[in-house]
Specification:
By secondary structure, this protein is an alpha+beta fold. About 35% of the residues lie in helices and about 20% in strands. It has 6 helices and 8 strands.
Length: about 240
């Protein structure tokens, strides 16, 4: 049966002489793998394969069979045309971090409507955002992805609850008896980031590059604590190098 859905390209892998297998986070079906025949041939029709770059947001018409691991695409076109993400090295690096984080987090072909819409909106915001918002976007996206995956932070930073316990995901009055927690200054920043209702609010949150680096690794540890199959990402060192440039 044919279905219309939007989707975000997460990865492409060469298959055979002319085809691609494309991993797409779809609006309707969650994470899915599609085979696209002829996407790498010399024929003019194959030029559409260039639309399958990681990070691209597509409008798709797809065949879907729940008992199959590999689906097929009938039609696809860009749903959003980036102005900067593919051409600005900083924005492109942030987008690649978001894409890798999704790859590590989405293991099953399950619909995640709210996460899908949040991701699409975040990528579009990244495309037009000023530098301060761009720098804080990886932190914000990581915290919000954890929430969408079911690991919401509980409570808020205050003078009475100044520590964030990453194992429990709770703000506490005393530091827990383990190393997986944030000190008060980082707990306050985390509460401010998590409390942003729109990513545009990130522009007002200032912090040093080193603090931003430490917080991102702490948030990845938070995901690792709650998702046993969550493996190490390759993009953060590149991300920090680019953001420090």
């Amino acid at each position: 049966m044919l279905h219309k859905t939007r989707g975000i390209v997460l990865r492409t892998v060469k298959y055979g002489d002319t085809s691609l297998i494309v991993g797409i986070f779809t609006e309707l079906f969650g994470m899915q793998s599609y085979i696209v025949n002829g996407a790498r041939s010399s024929k003019p029709k194959a030029a559409k394969g260039n639309l399958l770059q990681p990070g691209n947001i597509l409008e798709l018409v797809v065949y879907h069979n729940e008992i199959k691991n590999l689906q097929r695409i009938s039609e696809f076109k860009l749903a959003y045309i980036y102005n900067a993400v593919h051409f600005n090295v900083v924005k492109n690096t942030v987008a690649l971090y978001i894409i890798e984080l999704l790859q590590k987090s989405l293991k099953q072909p399950e619909q995640h409507l709210e996460l899908y819409y949040f991701t699409e909106n975040t990528l579009q915001l990244l495309d037009i955002s000023p530098s301060q918002t761009t720098a804080n976007l990886p932190l914000y996206f990581t915290l919000k992805l954890a929430e969408h995956m079911g690991f919401r932070l509980n409570g808020h930073y205050s003078e009475y609850t100044p520590y964030l316990d990453l194992q429990d995901g709770t703000f506490t009055d005393l530091p827990p008896h383990h190393s997986n927690h944030l000190e008060p200054d980082n707990s306050e920043l985390t509460d401010r980031l998590f409390g942003c209702h729109e990513a545009q609010q990130l522009e007002s949150i200032n912090m040093s590059k080193e603090k931003r680096r430490k917080l991102l690794y702490a948030y990845l540890d938070f995901l690792r604590l709650h998702m046993p199959d969550f493996t190490e990402l390759h993009s953060p060192p590149i991300l920090h190098e680019i953001l420090d440039a």
